[in-house]
From TrEMBL:
GO biological process: DNA integration; DNA recombination
Gene3D superfamilies: Intergrase catalytic core
Keywords (A to Z) from UniProt: DNA recombination
InterPro entries for this protein: DNA_brk_join_enz, Integrase-like_cat_sf
UniProt keyword annotation of Cell wall biogenesis/degradation present: no
GO molecular function, one term: DNA binding
Protein name: Integrase
Amino acid sequence: MKAVQFLVSRLYDACFVVIAYLVGARVSEILGLRSGCIERYGSAGGTETFCYLNGRIYKTAIGPGGQPHRWIAPEPVVRAVAVLEQLSVPLRQQMLRDELWLTPAADRDGTGILRSAGLTDRLNGPFASFIGLPLHDGLPWHLSTHQGRKTFARFVGRRDRTGLDALAAHLGHVTRAMTDVGYVGTDHDLTDLIDAEATRDTRAALEDLLTSVNVGGKAGRMIAAHSRFRGRTRDGDVAEYVDYILEETDMRLGRCDWGYCVYRRETASCLGDDRGPNPVFRTQSICATCSNFAVTQRHRPIWAERRKQNAELLAHPMLDGESRALATARAEECDRILGELQQDRKSDDG
């Protein structure tokens, strides 16, 4: 029985990690969740269904009962809540309560809810050992209950999610939901964290575009031709000019894994709106021919890998004609982008 309870506790820990890192709620807000907290709504445009996690914000609320709030919940969070609901059934029935984090071990204070300090001990003790948490610079990494919130803000604020693998799809879903006109957020602190990360992300992208010698894409070539910082290191003058762009102009710069978007609605091949690029039609092929597109050496690996994948596809003897034409077109797109970057590199060497 102890072995079963140990595994149940690790499931609780894992569910906390999933929710914290993919929702961005505080520990008090996660531990306050109740059964039936997941709801589904259609997007304003009717193209997607978004799930929401209904709970309460306590830290910034006026009263002790907290302020109602709903967080966007990607599918892994929906699954984690379903697991919590199943695990908590016996205690919820026994105690006639609907909280998801009821535990007999925490009932000495009369609340019956797992506390933050106890959760931190569990994360750094049995949970870290159970999952084989790797060392960081030769030392154990200390897990805290607020790391998920900060990491969430960082990755949602970032537009380049290269290397995040499957996590990138979930974060992209969250980003689309947060910009949907039907979404109203009340977690203003989290919004501020995300906005700060987005500003840092945009600043880094602008500095890369302004200083890169090797630039491709229609917008990239235009910026490179007029940038007085091309080939320079990122110094005070560059930072000052970036400040000017961010504060005094209406330039909007979008990021994705495969390049930058110097966004203008009237020339957007993705048919974006006033809010920015259209995530439904924003693909590598659409961007490659768009007047707003720019690419630097930092994006070369993405295009090289895409070129390799399509070349391997073309080598398949059973490939049908339609698929072969599509793979050929994509390979040619990659060749053109890589050729632009290589041409710049050769001119520098010469």
